[in-house]
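#structure-requests
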Amino acid sequence: MKNSFNLLFLLFSLTFSLNAQDSLKLSNNHDTAKVPVTVSKSKWFDKISIRGYTQIRYNRLLESNPDFKSEQGDKSIGNNGGFFIRRMRLIFFGQLNEYVYFYIQPDFASSASSNGLHFGQLRDAYFDVSVDKNREFRFRIGQSKVPFGFENMQSSQNRLPLDRNDALNSAVSNERDLGVFFMYAPKKIRERYSSLVNDGYKGSGDYGIFSFGAYNGQTANKPENNNNLHVCGRVTYPFSIGNQIIEPSIQMYSGIYTLYKDQISSKVNTYSDLSYKDERYAASFVLYPKPFGIQAEYNIGKGPQYDFTSDSILTKDLKGGYITLSYLFKHKSQQIIPFIRATTYNGGKKHEQDSRSYEVNEIEGGVEYQFNKHFELTATWLYSEKTTSDKAKENNFQIGSMLRLQAQLNF
């Protein structure tokens, strides 16, 4: 019995050894035809990317007038201003499938009040729904930039001057609103728009060569205040001529803006329904800096504006524009761009108290120095002459000049 057991154990061991040798031979011969292969499927959250940027500023060096202020732009300009976080953006984005792209951008440096800083506020929250696999035809749904004006659509991360110009930026506070926009651009042009940003040529991003849409018209993060929608349209095209790229554009928007009661001072006369025509037409011209650059825009229109002679908010004409000249120097990963911008604007700002009246003439020039793709410094000299009128201060004339510094981190 014991011998039989030993014999069976010996036979079992010999069989196992032979099978193991055969398996090793098959493995060495890469005969894996019968071996199942597990393919991991990509999940939707694998397609989400995160990027962002932060801007830290100081505006008080060589300041000539501490009473000179910036209501719409950098609120740290002037008296009691100091080091200031102008922006702290996180951007969540991704192409979820062939037809759906999403983009969400909060800002964690928003000012909730005059004594409350660094609150989180939504800037963008939209998704692009394409109707073709090349994504040439798409609908943008949600809160996003209104396609009006090149500098308005240009990201603050890419723009040379530290703040946007008054002339076109007065059209849409924070450049954004809630609506639906149709956009079209051929695949090769979409690739060109992408390279103009990624290669450091200060592009505006991809808003199509043709776009039109409808939006609330009360500006971003504000509730709708009437039963009318704004409509807008834009036509543009980036031509390639040798090494240069030139992009001319025309754009417009039209609608009814209704004042909020808390933005009207006591005893100021207004229209009975607080509603005003809000309409603009603009032309843009851009010669991308390869190496010399020109960026110019001008707009005309109508909108609500304070009239101090009648102590009223009326629908009045507006006009203004700017021109920016620049020159791009590149050395390996470093980039230096000196620039100068001149701005003029005569009109109202509908989103400010009493639709404040403005007459602005200013010049800002400086240098942007990108040490690498993650860190850059900008130094500018600003000279501005500004006359504003509202109920509290009529014909408030201020002249200001200062050296402005900004450090920007890109990640």
